[in-house]
């Protein structure tokens, strides 16, 4: 009778905190930048002159409940 040999399947390797930390910081800063542009980029706090950024994010601003008028 032949002998059946099974090999364990390799599973996903765990991600260490040191590898995850830079990505967490990057995503956090990206989300804060998006929140700024959607929620505050207008009027007195405007970093970019003109209405182009305001108009680009206008519908998203209303969708998320930020006042803009």
Describe this structure in words.
The chain has 69 residues and is mostly helical. The protein has a domain at 19-63. The chain is 49% helix and 0% strand. The protein is built from three helices and no strands. The chain has helices spanning 17-39, 52-56, 58-63. It is elongated and about 80 Å long. The protein starts with 16 loop residues before the first helix and ends in a 6-residue tail after the last helix.
The amount of helix comes to 40-55%
Quick check: average pLDDT? 81
Task: Estimate the strand proportion.
Answer: under 5%
Gyration radius (Cα, Å) is: 24 Å
Q: How far is it from the N-terminal to the C-terminal residue, by CA?
A: 82 Å
Largest sheet: none
String of helices and strands: HHH
Low-confidence stretches: none
The tally of beta strands, per DSSP, is 0
Structural class: mainly alpha
The number of helical elements comes to: 3
Question: Which of globular, elongated, flat, extended, rod-shaped describes the shape?
Answer: elongated
Q: Please identify the oligomeric state.
A: single chain
Q: What order do the helices and strands come in, and which of them pair?
A:
Elements: H1 17-39, H2 52-56, H3 58-63
In short:
The protein has 69 residues and is mostly helical. It has helices spanning 17-39, 52-56, 58-63.
Task: List its traits.
69 residues; mainly alpha; elongated
């Amino acid at each position: 009778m032949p002998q059946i040999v099974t090999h364990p399947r390799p599973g996903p390797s765990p991600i260490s905190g040191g590898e995850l930390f830079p990505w967490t910081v990057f995503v956090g800063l990206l989300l804060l930048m998006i929140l700024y542009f959607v929620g505050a980029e207008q009027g007195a706090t405007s970093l970019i002159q003109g209405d182009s950024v305001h108009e680009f994010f206008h519908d998203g601003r209303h969708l998320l409940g930020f006042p803009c008028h």
